Each structure stands twice: as C-alpha cells, then as structure tokens.
Design the sequence.
C-alpha cells in the first residue's frame, strides 16, 4: 500500500524509548513502527509531557490567522500558532501504543490530522484538542455564505447555484469555485499537481481524550470506542459520520464570547425538542447552544450505543443538536443529565435502523434511555486513561 506523508511541521526521526520525556511542542511522529508491529504505519513509542505555555496576544494580521480563518482573521478564536501542529497522513494507521500526550498545566494545544483514510488509535491525549480534518468551514445558513468557498452569497453566484453548500469531502477543493468545471478531468489535473486535498475517512478508535473540544470535519469519518471528557463539546461539521460505542462526558460550556441562544422550541417527545429557527453560526454569531455534541450539515450520520453525560445540572443543555443534518440515526444511546437530550431544527430529520424517516413525536425508543437526574460531577482523566474525580 502506497503511503504518503506530508507533514507541515518539521519531521524528526525518534528513537524508540519507553521513558517519559519533556518537550516544548507537540511530538513529531515516529516514521516507522517497531518490527513487532506490522499492522500500523506510524507509531508513538514513548510518553510525551508537553511543557505548559502561557497565553500570548495573537497577531491576527499574520498569514497564519488569515489562513486559518479563511480570510476572516477578526472572527478567528482558535489556537495560537505556537500551540498548533498539523500532521498530514494518507492511507495510514497511527498506533499510539497506549502512550500519553499530556499538555496539562497550561493553555490547551491543538493537534490537527489532515488527510484521508487514516486511523488514530489506542492512546491517551490530555489537554490537547483533536481535530480530524482542517481548512473547512460549514455554511452560515443565516447569511447563505460559506467561508473558504468562493461561491458565496445568497444564491447570487453561479457556482453556488450549481454546487450548493460544500461538504468536507474529496471534492471540496475542486468545487469551491477556484476550479470550474469540477469534472473527472479537472480532478485528475488537480490531484497530479497536488492541489487537491483529500479529506475523507478520518477516524479515532480507542482514544482517551481530555480537552475543550474535539472536531470532526472529514466526510465518512468517525469516533469509535473512545472516552472523551470535554469542557465544551464534540463538533461534527460537513461530514457523514459514525459515532459508535463512546463514553462522552461534557460540561457543555459556551465559549467566553458567546451567550445562550434564545430558543423557541416545541417538545415533540420525551427525547426530542424541535425548533423552526436557524441555529447560530459558530464563526459569525455571538450566541450558541449548550450541547455535548453539535452535528451540523452532516446528513446520514449514525449515533449508536453511546453514553452522553453532563458533569453538572444544566437544564439548557442538550446531548445532541442536529443543525441542517437530515436522515440521522440515533439508536441505543444512554443520556444522563438531560431532560430533553436531542434538539433538532426544521431542516434535520431522524431515521430508524432501516433508514425510514421518523416524525419527532413518534421517536419514543429505539434503545435510547434517559436518566435525567444522574450527573457525573467534576471528573478528569489521568495518564493511565482512567476517569477519576477532580
């Protein structure tokens, strides 16, 4: 299998080592695994303790913030350039060998995996926000625009009429208006010139993560068999995703610059609330919805056999928010600490295990269970990957 690795940060070859080491930055990847492990392409063969960094003022006129914000640096509220590292992988498995990456004690770091057909598995990541996929912004449905898409505007541009809003898939770079028409010949030209970024099928499996957020923006990607303790939430953007067999604990806090979005909702069942409103946009609006998992513009997503838990009582929080995400399957989940665990807008819908759409008022079971009075309390992850009281 041909494997390509395009790492935007410096590439270092590390010697296999079992002892913990201290580093100023996030670790480089080990280029080859031990001879014992033939099932993986890249390995982490030691623990990493990342030295804390203090916040510093961001120069939002720099190329870094202009790049990350898609030309809107004043709207950018993500990580500082000193705290982010991007690994670009294709057709690869990153085996963490149950080692930890720990950046506790300072500001949260950002670990971005760019590429396609990648699995990151069997590791512990503390105080580091994980992003599967990058350089994607979901649509702002209130304005009819999409950052990083030259086909913006309220249906006044011929490209947006032709393609509509864009998903985080392998056609994104071609369709965003820079290269029109987006046909098989054009795709081949872009791929041969390395101007087409494939971004599908990014997965984490058996990862234990304590962070502010976890973001998935990779069509066909997913989160499996993982334990996540988050200050804020999981964000699923522009991606047909699979979220199965995870334990998700969150405080469901809003970002400091956000206030609670004034919802006008109707309780459709003991599981679902429905709203006719356009939900606030992550990049432009000053309001937000408290939630453990926000699924935006991600049709046909599957959410099965997960445990969603609040750390404390919050009557205004939701386990799952569906925003312009039709045909989502939500089955066999446990919701602890939610009176109404699911909120959906008028452009979203839910389906049964056979793919048949269900009216929200008829969604009464499908293996989902609510324990509204159970909260986890303040918990954290230790370096063994165990959930313990703070």
Sequence:
């Amino acid at each position: 299998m041909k494997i390509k690795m395009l790492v935007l940060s410096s590439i270092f070859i590390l010697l296999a080592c079992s002892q913990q080491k201290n580093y100023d930055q996030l670790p480089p990847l080990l280029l080859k695994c031990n001879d014992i492990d033939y099932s993986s392409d890249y390995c982490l063969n030691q623990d990493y303790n990342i030295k804390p960094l203090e916040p510093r003022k961001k120069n939002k006129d720099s190329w870094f913030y202009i790049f990350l914000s898609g030309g809107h640096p004043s709207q950018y509220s993500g990580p500082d350039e000193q705290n982010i590292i991007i690994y670009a992988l294709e057709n690869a498995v990153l085996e963490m060998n149950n080692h930890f990456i720990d950046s506790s004690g300072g500001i949260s770091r950002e670990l971005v995996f760019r590429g396609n057909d990648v699995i990151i598995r069997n590791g512990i990541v503390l105080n580091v926000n994980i992003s599967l996929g990058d350089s994607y912004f979901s649509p702002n449905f209130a304005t009819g625009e999409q950052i990083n898409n030259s086909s913006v505007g309220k249906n006044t541009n011929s490209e947006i009429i032709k393609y509509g809003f864009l998903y985080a898939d392998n056609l994104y770079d071609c369709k965003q208006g820079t290269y029109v028409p987006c046909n098989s010949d054009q795709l081949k030209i872009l791929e041969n010139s390395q101007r087409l970024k494939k971004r599908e099928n990014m997965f984490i499996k058996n990862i234990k993560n304590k962070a502010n957020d976890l973001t998935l923006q990779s069509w066909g990607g997913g989160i499996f068999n993982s334990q996540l303790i988050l200050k804020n939430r999981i964000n699923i953007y522009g991606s047909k995703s699979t979220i199965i067999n995870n334990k998700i604990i969150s405080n469901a806090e809003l970002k400091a610059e956000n206030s609670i979005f004034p919802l006008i909702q109707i309780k459709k069942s003991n599981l679902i609330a429905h709203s006719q409103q356009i939900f606030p946009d992550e990049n432009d609006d000053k309001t937000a919805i408290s939630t453990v998992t926000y699924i935006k513009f991600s049709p046909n997503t599957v959410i099965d056999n997960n445990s969603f838990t609040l750390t404390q009582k919050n009557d205004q929080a939701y386990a799952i928010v569906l925003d312009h995400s039709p045909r989502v399957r939500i089955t066999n989940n446990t919701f602890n600490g939610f009176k109404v665990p699911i909120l959906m807008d008028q452009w979203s819908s839910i389906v049964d295990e056979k793919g048949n759409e269900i009216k929200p008022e008829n969604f009464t079971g499908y293996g989902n269970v609510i324990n509204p009075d159970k909260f986890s309390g303040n918990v954290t992850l230790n370096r063994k990957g165990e959930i313990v009281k703070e």
Observations:
- The first strand starts at residue 4 and ends at 5.
